[in-house]
Amino acid sequence: MAEFWTGYLLPLILILAKILLFVVPLLVAVAYVTYAERRIIGAMQMRIGPNVVGWFGLLQPFADAVKLLTKETVLPTGSSPVVFFLAPMVTFSLAMIAWAVIPVNEGWYIANINVGILYLFAVSSLGVYGIVMAGWASNSRYAFLGAMRSAAQMVSYEVSIGFVMISVLLTAGTLNLSEIVMAQKGLWFFIPHFPMFVIFFVSVLAETNRHPFDLPEAESELVAGFMTEYSSMAFALFFLGEYANMIMMSGVVTILFLGGWLAPFDIAILNAVPGIVWFALKISFCLFLMIWVRATFPRYRYDQLMRLGWKVFLPLSLIWLVATAGFLVYTGRVPV
Amino acid sequence: MIVASLAFYLFSFIAIVSALNVILQRNPVHSVLWLILTFFNAAGLFLLLGAEFLAMILVVVYVGAVAVLFLFVVMMLDINVAIIREGFMKYLPVGAFIGIVLLVELALVFGGWAMAPEAQSLRLAVTPDMAQVPNTEALGLIMYTQYVYVFQAAGLVLLVAMIGSIVLTMRRRPGVRKQDISTQVNRRKEDTVEIVKVPVGKGIA
Asked: What ipTM describes this predicted complex?
């Protein structure tokens, strides 16, 4: 019995506590990203944004959540009920399970696996299922068109994301996320890999269906794309999933290029700040960039989006990958 | 250990049930979704074996890319399941016969399975010690040293298939208007705009 307690039950409780410690702040962060987006875009467009509910409108996300909870759940006729409700759950849980491997500070993670970066790549490549299932199960033309666009878009941009990741992995010499961060001590990878940093960031925008690549939900053409038929909690799950995905991909950018939890300079004062603060600051910077892009650029046309992915990003990232490998071998800097 | 075996039975049970559902579902889209679940459980079994790299690659390649294309195609098709079911009884004897032949062949192959002692020693010589190097590194060490020619040959086969599919689908369609961004950027005012002084009351012919 004692063995059962120390061998199984205690680790289980510890893991559950860790998961709670990740998920609760994450959900609060998701709520406040939506608020930040509305306030920042409001400021950029010389409007005010939500400022009525609570001090400076700080309770607005919770008011929205309560509103969505009390709405009626609608199931369209001719839809496929199981798939219809499975889709938002898939989207939301995929955005959550990616956090299992993300280290937010030295030794702060749920699982430290050897193939961490592959796990993240696998989870982000699954994101397309939530959207495709939603589009198909809704039995609606708008939703279906949105899903088709999204599937092609996400598959296209995954290719360049993969190549950029491989360039970084070659430089770091490991697939383990914590070791990738530690390999950036002294020089964050966004300096030597700056073109790849830009390509990765733009591909992340396409992968998360954010502006200017939000064609799957382009409201002027497709109403709300794959989300057209959703209401109430199902809609809220999609919404939460989209913003959680934004935070997750910002975390990946931070780990691969911005030095994870490391302080900007190796100075005692900066090093005294806890790593998680730096990590959060870097994620906030990436999120601000995403929101800034949304307020600045008009939407891409579909053929331009495909051209950018296949004819510009793919060759560029491939050439950069070969150049990185060649440079590392030629100068004898291959990490072992 | 008991957790590992419980996980094994869970993964294999779900894998078998979902594989059965792939062929039993009436709706082809549901079939593909069950197929995806099968892939996932196969990845889980790989993980239990300690083959973490293979598990992740299975999810990335099969679930993330191949099954997406399946789903894409199946959703676009207008398959009438009733018509497919019509021929079921007609083709059942032939199908069952082929199935039995395959089963017997497999049984014969596995029944007579023997390994040459030299092959065993060769294999042991190149496999890195799994206790010292991680799974991914071990795979790389074998593939890029001992089996590098075979690996490159497999790559060439894939390259041929890729070029073949591009050549097959590439065709010049007349009358399609396409955006050429470099032409747009390279256009100068002199090439496109002509400024004419129009005499009053005469216009230009």
From this structure: 0.81
